[in-house]
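Dear Dr. V.,

Thank you for agreeing to look over these. As mentioned in my earlier message, I'm a first-year student in the group and I'm still getting used to reading structure tokens, so any feedback on how I've presented them would be very welcome. I ran two proteins. I've put each sequence directly above its structure. The first is here:
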Amino acid sequence: MSKRNNWENKQSARERLRAERERQAKKDRTRRQLIVGGAVVAVLAVGAGIVVAVSQLGKDGKSGLNASWEAASKKELVKPANTGGDNGTEILIGKKDAKHTLDLYQDMRCPICSVFEQSVGDTIDKDVKDGKYKVSYHVATFLDRNFGGSGSKNALSALGAALNVSPEAFSAYNKALYSKANHPNETKDDYAKDDVLLKVANEVPALKGNAEFEKNVKDGTFDKWALTVSDEFDKAKDVTGTPTLKMNGKKLTAEDGKNVPITPDQYTKAIDAALKS
């Protein structure tokens, strides 16, 4: 790849991030968005108090669930294939013998997660294919609590249906959900609609026309699992928002020591430095 193309890719990522931040600044005055280390931290004005949603992860129990998700929380847990751990909350993508692990914390409605995946996703895919490290996904649903709705939970459940097909289908579907063409404004609850999720899935060959996948999405087979995965995210230490990256348990940042590496070059430098330490 030419130096010019590298520069253009960097500029494109920066422009997308800048545009996202500018859009966030125009939100309703009762809802401020703070970008902290590349993460979205929603601050909601509730009555006379201010609730910083990310700092309250895991403290609201099931109070934010609507009736269907409340019902799902009481059902028997069904774990997708290709998961690990007692409750199937371990989502590892990559070669089992890879010596290093990248922990990736995300929310499917998160706009910065979308920008990150669009910019750095291909680099991660190549590194995983080369066995440089494996990726452990930790998926949240706090933006459902921040903005209302169930898009984060429903998309996570659909990702479980994709993982049930194969790890490769999970990765491809994750990428499609975060793509510029598909990812909705986080205040819109598009991913709460099964038909939207299935339409996006048509971009993934392993999922297009896959009757079992479609049935699992429509039936909410992995809804309880999605809630369980989200609960595990809420227990994570030193995670104040999304996206958050950790290499072998240590937070991964750009050279400024604060922000998530948002360009391929920033990311590769951060990864290489982490693997040498």
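The second protein is here, in the same arrangement:
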Amino acid sequence: MRELKPEEVETVFGKLAKYIGKNVEKLIDRNDGKYVFRILKDRVYYMSQQLEKVASNIPRKQLIGSGLLIGKFTHHKKFHIKITALPLLAVFAPYRIRITPASELSFLYKNDVMKSHITHMSEGIPDNAGVVIVSADDQPVGFGVTTKSGNEALNSDPASKIVIHQADVGEFLRDQDTMF
């Protein structure tokens, strides 16, 4: 494992800021200790410094992962947030969209969120913002990117696409062989 290079830090924090905004700063200096981002085999992990010290004793070839997998760098150096980052996004995300129980299954099958699927939206969601999708009982089920601002979405046609699907908890089953 190694520290992220400055350009990697900028890429990762830029992508995370799309979903959690200014709360990116809270990821490093938390009340329960210091946390760090480390990279291993193009995958970015988020962990406490204590866990990093323990993991540093394991040879790189034998270490599969350590901490919370945030995302992965592609061959073209683009960063993709993985569904394993959902617990972190759910805690720090300022924008949430609650969907109906019937549309939850549709979302879990990689479909986008339409206006008719939405039961509640956070106030002041901007256009192209990262949002966490929650079920009717407030359990996070995935995340996506809005196509319209909150006010535009409320006044739009029921069949219009509001959130573009990025990831959902169904990926744990669909991609279990390639996830880690």
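From my reading of the second output: Residues 110 and 165 are 6 Å apart (CA to CA). The chain has two domains: 2-85, 95-174. Does that match how you would interpret it?

Kind regards,
E.
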